[in-house]
Write a structure and sequence with these properties.
single chain, about 350 residues, alpha/beta, Rossmann fold, 2 domains, four-stranded parallel beta sheet, about 25% helix, about 20% strand, binds asparagine, asparaginase, asparaginase activity, EC 3.5.1.1, Asparaginase/glutaminase-like
Length: about 350
Protein backbone atom coordinates (compact mmCIF):
# COMPACT_ATOMS: atom_id res chain seq x y z
CA UNK A 1 0.00 0.00 0.00
CA UNK A 2 1.21 3.54 -0.58
CA UNK A 3 2.28 5.14 2.66
CA UNK A 4 -0.59 7.61 2.90
CA UNK A 5 -3.12 4.80 2.59
CA UNK A 6 -1.23 2.71 5.14
CA UNK A 7 -1.00 5.57 7.62
CA UNK A 8 -3.97 5.88 9.94
CA UNK A 9 -5.28 2.51 8.71
CA UNK A 10 -4.22 0.68 11.87
CA UNK A 11 -6.75 0.34 14.64
CA UNK A 12 -4.56 -1.24 17.31
CA UNK A 13 -3.40 1.90 19.06
CA UNK A 14 -0.68 1.43 21.63
CA UNK A 15 -0.72 5.03 22.84
CA UNK A 16 -3.07 5.84 25.72
CA UNK A 17 -5.90 8.16 24.73
CA UNK A 18 -6.89 9.30 28.24
CA UNK A 19 -3.81 11.32 29.21
CA UNK A 20 -4.40 14.39 27.06
CA UNK A 21 -1.93 13.24 24.39
CA UNK A 22 -3.14 14.26 20.95
CA UNK A 23 -2.31 11.36 18.61
CA UNK A 24 -1.64 12.98 15.26
CA UNK A 25 -0.07 10.08 13.39
CA UNK A 26 -0.94 6.43 13.47
CA UNK A 27 0.80 4.02 11.12
CA UNK A 28 -0.13 0.47 10.13
CA UNK A 29 0.22 -2.37 12.63
CA UNK A 30 2.39 -5.45 12.15
CA UNK A 31 2.46 -7.78 15.16
CA UNK A 32 6.07 -8.80 14.50
CA UNK A 33 7.41 -5.23 14.81
CA UNK A 34 8.09 -3.22 17.98
CA UNK A 35 5.74 -0.37 18.93
CA UNK A 36 7.56 2.97 18.84
CA UNK A 37 5.99 6.28 19.81
CA UNK A 38 7.23 9.54 18.30
CA UNK A 39 6.79 12.89 20.04
CA UNK A 40 7.55 15.65 17.53
CA UNK A 41 8.57 19.04 18.94
CA UNK A 42 10.07 20.89 15.95
CA UNK A 43 13.64 22.05 15.40
CA UNK A 44 15.74 21.94 12.26
CA UNK A 45 14.74 18.35 11.55
CA UNK A 46 11.33 19.92 10.87
CA UNK A 47 12.86 23.02 9.31
CA UNK A 48 12.22 24.41 5.84
CA UNK A 49 13.80 26.88 3.45
CA UNK A 50 13.13 27.98 -0.12
CA UNK A 51 16.75 27.20 -1.01
CA UNK A 52 18.28 23.75 -0.72
CA UNK A 53 21.64 25.43 -0.08
CA UNK A 54 20.38 27.25 2.98
CA UNK A 55 21.45 25.75 6.30
CA UNK A 56 21.46 28.92 8.40
CA UNK A 57 18.45 31.13 7.71
CA UNK A 58 15.70 28.54 7.33
CA UNK A 59 12.64 28.41 9.59
CA UNK A 60 12.80 25.67 12.23
CA UNK A 61 9.69 23.82 13.38
CA UNK A 62 7.55 23.97 10.24
CA UNK A 63 7.18 20.42 8.92
CA UNK A 64 4.62 18.28 10.73
CA UNK A 65 5.07 14.78 12.08
CA UNK A 66 3.20 13.08 9.22
CA UNK A 67 5.44 14.71 6.61
CA UNK A 68 8.54 13.79 8.62
CA UNK A 69 7.48 10.16 8.70
CA UNK A 70 6.36 10.15 5.09
CA UNK A 71 9.84 11.29 4.06
CA UNK A 72 11.19 8.04 5.51
CA UNK A 73 8.82 5.21 4.50
CA UNK A 74 11.46 2.68 5.66
CA UNK A 75 10.41 3.58 9.20
CA UNK A 76 7.32 1.46 8.81
CA UNK A 77 9.47 -1.59 8.04
CA UNK A 78 11.26 -1.38 11.40
CA UNK A 79 8.47 -0.36 13.77
CA UNK A 80 4.79 0.28 14.28
CA UNK A 81 4.81 4.04 14.61
CA UNK A 82 2.31 6.28 16.35
CA UNK A 83 3.05 9.88 17.07
CA UNK A 84 2.01 13.14 18.55
CA UNK A 85 2.86 16.64 17.46
CA UNK A 86 3.50 18.02 20.94
CA UNK A 87 4.55 21.41 19.59
CA UNK A 88 6.41 22.63 16.48
CA UNK A 89 9.04 25.21 17.39
CA UNK A 90 12.78 25.79 17.48
CA UNK A 91 14.21 24.23 20.63
CA UNK A 92 15.64 27.53 21.88
CA UNK A 93 12.00 28.54 22.50
CA UNK A 94 11.10 25.46 24.56
CA UNK A 95 10.47 26.05 28.24
CA UNK A 96 10.23 24.08 31.48
CA UNK A 97 6.44 23.79 31.30
CA UNK A 98 6.57 22.07 27.91
CA UNK A 99 9.46 19.73 28.71
CA UNK A 100 7.90 18.71 32.02
CA UNK A 101 4.71 17.87 30.11
CA UNK A 102 6.73 15.81 27.62
CA UNK A 103 8.36 13.93 30.51
CA UNK A 104 4.96 13.18 32.02
CA UNK A 105 3.66 11.97 28.65
CA UNK A 106 6.79 9.83 28.27
CA UNK A 107 6.21 8.17 31.64
CA UNK A 108 2.54 7.59 30.84
CA UNK A 109 3.30 6.11 27.43
CA UNK A 110 6.24 3.91 28.41
CA UNK A 111 6.00 3.17 32.09
CA UNK A 112 2.30 2.90 32.97
CA UNK A 113 1.12 -0.57 33.90
CA UNK A 114 0.10 -2.54 30.83
CA UNK A 115 1.97 -0.27 28.39
CA UNK A 116 2.66 -1.99 25.08
CA UNK A 117 4.89 0.82 23.78
CA UNK A 118 8.43 -0.51 23.42
CA UNK A 119 10.30 2.75 22.97
CA UNK A 120 9.96 6.48 22.43
CA UNK A 121 11.61 8.85 19.95
CA UNK A 122 11.52 12.60 20.56
CA UNK A 123 12.29 14.73 17.51
CA UNK A 124 13.81 17.95 18.74
CA UNK A 125 15.86 20.98 17.79
CA UNK A 126 19.51 20.38 18.49
CA UNK A 127 20.21 23.63 20.36
CA UNK A 128 18.62 22.41 23.59
CA UNK A 129 18.30 18.73 22.74
CA UNK A 130 20.82 17.75 25.42
CA UNK A 131 18.66 19.49 28.04
CA UNK A 132 15.49 17.56 27.22
CA UNK A 133 17.54 14.36 26.88
CA UNK A 134 19.04 14.91 30.32
CA UNK A 135 15.60 15.58 31.81
CA UNK A 136 14.26 12.33 30.31
CA UNK A 137 17.28 10.45 31.61
CA UNK A 138 16.59 11.79 35.10
CA UNK A 139 12.85 11.12 35.28
CA UNK A 140 11.83 8.35 32.83
CA UNK A 141 13.36 5.18 34.17
CA UNK A 142 11.42 1.99 33.48
CA UNK A 143 14.13 0.55 31.25
CA UNK A 144 12.50 1.29 27.89
CA UNK A 145 14.52 3.35 25.41
CA UNK A 146 13.93 7.09 25.11
CA UNK A 147 15.83 8.37 22.06
CA UNK A 148 16.32 12.07 21.27
CA UNK A 149 16.96 12.91 17.64
CA UNK A 150 17.36 16.06 15.56
CA UNK A 151 19.17 17.35 12.53
CA UNK A 152 21.62 20.08 11.63
CA UNK A 153 20.31 20.63 8.12
CA UNK A 154 16.68 21.55 7.47
CA UNK A 155 14.47 19.04 5.66
CA UNK A 156 14.77 21.06 2.45
CA UNK A 157 18.61 21.08 2.38
CA UNK A 158 20.83 19.18 0.03
CA UNK A 159 22.00 16.07 1.94
CA UNK A 160 19.54 16.72 4.76
CA UNK A 161 20.56 14.61 7.74
CA UNK A 162 17.12 14.36 9.34
CA UNK A 163 15.67 11.35 7.46
CA UNK A 164 18.58 8.98 8.22
CA UNK A 165 18.77 10.23 11.79
CA UNK A 166 15.04 9.62 12.27
CA UNK A 167 15.20 6.12 10.78
CA UNK A 168 18.13 5.23 13.04
CA UNK A 169 16.42 6.70 16.11
CA UNK A 170 13.21 4.73 15.51
CA UNK A 171 15.22 1.55 14.89
CA UNK A 172 17.12 2.17 18.13
CA UNK A 173 13.95 2.83 20.15
CA UNK A 174 12.57 -0.55 19.08
CA UNK A 175 15.80 -2.41 19.79
CA UNK A 176 15.74 -4.66 22.92
CA UNK A 177 19.47 -4.12 23.44
CA UNK A 178 18.84 -0.38 23.83
CA UNK A 179 16.97 -0.99 27.09
CA UNK A 180 18.39 -0.12 30.51
CA UNK A 181 20.91 2.39 29.18
CA UNK A 182 19.16 5.61 30.17
CA UNK A 183 18.00 8.18 27.63
CA UNK A 184 19.98 8.16 24.39
CA UNK A 185 20.94 10.74 21.77
CA UNK A 186 21.11 9.43 18.19
CA UNK A 187 22.54 11.61 15.44
CA UNK A 188 25.08 11.23 12.68
CA UNK A 189 25.39 7.41 13.02
CA UNK A 190 26.32 7.64 16.70
CA UNK A 191 24.61 6.74 19.95
CA UNK A 192 25.48 8.81 23.02
CA UNK A 193 24.36 8.71 26.62
CA UNK A 194 22.11 11.64 27.51
CA UNK A 195 24.07 12.19 30.71
CA UNK A 196 27.26 13.07 28.89
CA UNK A 197 26.53 13.96 25.29
CA UNK A 198 26.44 17.64 24.36
CA UNK A 199 26.29 19.81 21.29
CA UNK A 200 29.78 20.97 20.41
CA UNK A 201 29.57 22.65 17.03
CA UNK A 202 27.00 25.27 16.02
CA UNK A 203 26.98 24.24 12.36
CA UNK A 204 28.22 20.76 11.47
CA UNK A 205 26.32 17.48 11.44
CA UNK A 206 28.90 15.75 13.68
CA UNK A 207 28.08 18.13 16.51
CA UNK A 208 27.00 15.77 19.32
CA UNK A 209 29.95 14.35 21.22
CA UNK A 210 31.03 13.16 24.64
CA UNK A 211 34.75 13.28 24.05
CA UNK A 212 35.93 12.03 27.43
CA UNK A 213 33.17 9.52 28.05
CA UNK A 214 32.78 8.41 24.45
CA UNK A 215 29.82 7.15 22.47
CA UNK A 216 28.13 4.04 23.77
CA UNK A 217 27.37 2.76 20.29
CA UNK A 218 26.62 3.60 16.70
CA UNK A 219 24.81 2.48 13.56
CA UNK A 220 25.96 0.42 10.60
CA UNK A 221 23.62 0.43 7.61
CA UNK A 222 21.12 2.09 10.01
CA UNK A 223 21.22 -0.87 12.47
CA UNK A 224 22.35 -0.05 16.02
CA UNK A 225 25.30 -1.70 17.78
CA UNK A 226 26.74 -1.11 21.25
CA UNK A 227 30.32 -1.07 22.46
CA UNK A 228 29.32 -1.98 26.01
CA UNK A 229 26.68 -4.10 27.76
CA UNK A 230 23.62 -2.27 29.10
CA UNK A 231 24.17 -0.13 32.17
CA UNK A 232 23.69 3.34 33.58
CA UNK A 233 26.45 5.96 33.81
CA UNK A 234 28.16 6.25 37.21
CA UNK A 235 27.02 9.77 38.07
CA UNK A 236 23.36 9.38 37.11
CA UNK A 237 20.61 10.42 39.55
CA UNK A 238 16.89 9.81 39.13
CA UNK A 239 13.83 11.71 40.33
CA UNK A 240 10.15 10.83 40.69
CA UNK A 241 8.12 13.63 39.09
CA UNK A 242 4.68 12.10 39.64
CA UNK A 243 3.76 14.89 42.07
CA UNK A 244 5.76 17.67 40.40
CA UNK A 245 3.53 20.16 38.60
CA UNK A 246 6.09 22.79 37.74
CA UNK A 247 9.84 23.23 37.57
CA UNK A 248 11.25 26.23 39.43
CA UNK A 249 13.21 29.02 37.81
CA UNK A 250 16.93 28.26 37.93
CA UNK A 251 19.37 30.55 36.15
CA UNK A 252 22.85 29.93 34.78
CA UNK A 253 25.42 32.72 35.21
CA UNK A 254 28.49 32.59 32.98
CA UNK A 255 31.93 33.05 34.54
CA UNK A 256 34.59 35.37 33.12
CA UNK A 257 37.08 38.05 34.23
CA UNK A 258 35.34 40.89 36.07
CA UNK A 259 32.34 38.61 36.80
CA UNK A 260 29.83 40.75 38.70
CA UNK A 261 28.93 38.73 41.82
CA UNK A 262 25.97 41.09 42.39
CA UNK A 263 24.21 39.42 39.45
CA UNK A 264 23.54 36.50 41.77
CA UNK A 265 21.33 38.57 44.05
CA UNK A 266 19.72 40.21 41.02
CA UNK A 267 18.77 36.78 39.68
CA UNK A 268 17.27 35.89 43.06
CA UNK A 269 15.33 39.17 43.14
CA UNK A 270 14.06 38.28 39.67
CA UNK A 271 12.60 35.00 40.97
CA UNK A 272 15.37 32.41 40.68
CA UNK A 273 15.01 29.59 43.22
CA UNK A 274 18.48 28.26 42.49
CA UNK A 275 21.54 29.29 40.52
CA UNK A 276 24.19 27.46 38.55
CA UNK A 277 27.44 29.27 37.94
CA UNK A 278 29.36 28.20 34.84
CA UNK A 279 32.73 28.74 36.50
CA UNK A 280 35.89 29.61 34.67
CA UNK A 281 37.69 26.31 35.33
CA UNK A 282 37.22 23.41 37.74
CA UNK A 283 34.45 25.39 39.43
CA UNK A 284 36.77 28.31 40.03
CA UNK A 285 34.92 31.44 41.16
CA UNK A 286 36.48 34.80 41.92
CA UNK A 287 37.26 35.65 45.57
CA UNK A 288 34.34 38.06 45.81
CA UNK A 289 31.97 35.58 44.18
CA UNK A 290 32.95 32.86 46.66
CA UNK A 291 32.13 35.15 49.60
CA UNK A 292 28.68 35.78 48.12
CA UNK A 293 28.10 32.10 47.31
CA UNK A 294 29.02 31.06 50.88
CA UNK A 295 26.71 33.70 52.32
CA UNK A 296 23.77 32.49 50.24
CA UNK A 297 24.44 28.78 50.83
CA UNK A 298 24.43 29.44 54.58
CA UNK A 299 21.02 31.07 54.16
CA UNK A 300 19.77 27.91 52.45
CA UNK A 301 19.83 29.21 48.87
CA UNK A 302 21.20 26.52 46.51
CA UNK A 303 24.10 27.49 44.25
CA UNK A 304 25.77 24.87 42.10
CA UNK A 305 29.23 25.30 40.59
CA UNK A 306 29.68 23.89 37.10
CA UNK A 307 32.21 24.89 34.49
CA UNK A 308 32.13 26.75 31.18
CA UNK A 309 34.92 24.44 30.00
CA UNK A 310 33.58 21.80 27.61
CA UNK A 311 35.11 18.75 29.27
CA UNK A 312 36.03 17.81 32.83
CA UNK A 313 34.51 18.01 36.30
CA UNK A 314 34.20 20.28 39.30
CA UNK A 315 35.54 18.55 42.43
CA UNK A 316 33.23 17.86 45.38
CA UNK A 317 33.80 18.55 49.05
CA UNK A 318 34.17 22.32 48.66
CA UNK A 319 32.06 25.21 49.86
CA UNK A 320 29.89 25.23 46.79
CA UNK A 321 27.62 22.42 45.59
CA UNK A 322 29.57 20.67 42.86
CA UNK A 323 28.02 19.84 39.50
CA UNK A 324 30.61 17.09 38.99
CA UNK A 325 30.66 16.24 35.30
CA UNK A 326 27.35 17.98 34.53
CA UNK A 327 27.71 20.93 32.19
CA UNK A 328 25.84 24.10 33.25
CA UNK A 329 22.56 23.42 31.41
CA UNK A 330 22.36 19.87 32.77
CA UNK A 331 23.26 21.02 36.29
CA UNK A 332 20.43 23.53 35.94
CA UNK A 333 17.91 20.76 35.23
CA UNK A 334 19.17 18.59 38.09
CA UNK A 335 18.82 21.57 40.44
CA UNK A 336 15.30 22.25 39.15
CA UNK A 337 14.36 18.62 39.84
CA UNK A 338 15.99 18.61 43.28
CA UNK A 339 14.07 21.73 44.31
CA UNK A 340 10.80 20.61 42.68
CA UNK A 341 10.87 17.26 44.50
CA UNK A 342 11.12 19.10 47.82
CA UNK A 343 14.70 18.31 48.85
CA UNK A 344 16.35 20.46 51.53
CA UNK A 345 19.89 21.77 51.18
CA UNK A 346 21.44 18.50 52.36
CA UNK A 347 19.25 16.54 49.99
CA UNK A 348 20.11 18.84 47.10
CA UNK A 349 23.82 18.55 47.84
CA UNK A 350 23.49 14.77 48.05
CA UNK A 351 21.81 14.60 44.61
CA UNK A 352 24.83 16.36 43.16
CA UNK A 353 27.69 15.05 45.24
CA UNK A 354 26.79 11.59 46.59
CA UNK A 355 28.16 9.74 43.62
CA UNK A 356 31.18 12.07 43.42
CA UNK A 357 32.43 11.47 46.94
CA UNK A 358 35.33 9.07 46.81
CA UNK A 359 35.85 9.96 43.15
CA UNK A 360 36.10 13.72 42.95
CA UNK A 361 36.70 14.91 46.53
CA UNK A 362 40.41 14.17 46.62
N1 LIG B 1 19.76 22.27 14.45
C1 LIG B 1 18.74 22.76 15.14
O1 LIG B 1 17.78 22.05 15.38
C2 LIG B 1 18.84 24.18 15.64
C3 LIG B 1 17.55 24.87 15.93
N2 LIG B 1 17.81 26.27 16.24
C4 LIG B 1 16.78 24.26 17.09
O2 LIG B 1 17.32 23.90 18.09
O3 LIG B 1 15.60 24.16 16.98
Amino acid sequence: LPLEARANSGNSSFLPTDIGLNITYSGPHNASLPNVAIFATGGTIAGSSSSELDTTSYTAGVVGIAALIEAVPQLLDVANVQGSQIINIASESLNSTIVLQIAKFANAVLCAEGSTTDGLVITHGTDTLEETAFLMDSVVNCGKPVVLVGAMRPSTAISADGPANLLEAVTLAGEPDARDRGALIALNDRIGSALYTQKNNANTINTFTAVEQGNIGGFLSTKPFFYYPAGQPTFKETFDISSVNELPMVDVLYGHQSFDWKLIQEAIDNGAKGIVIAGTGAGSLSDLTIIEVERLLKQGFPIVASTKINEGAVPAGRDWISAGFLNPVKARIRLQLAIATGLDMNGIRAKFENTLVGYLDK
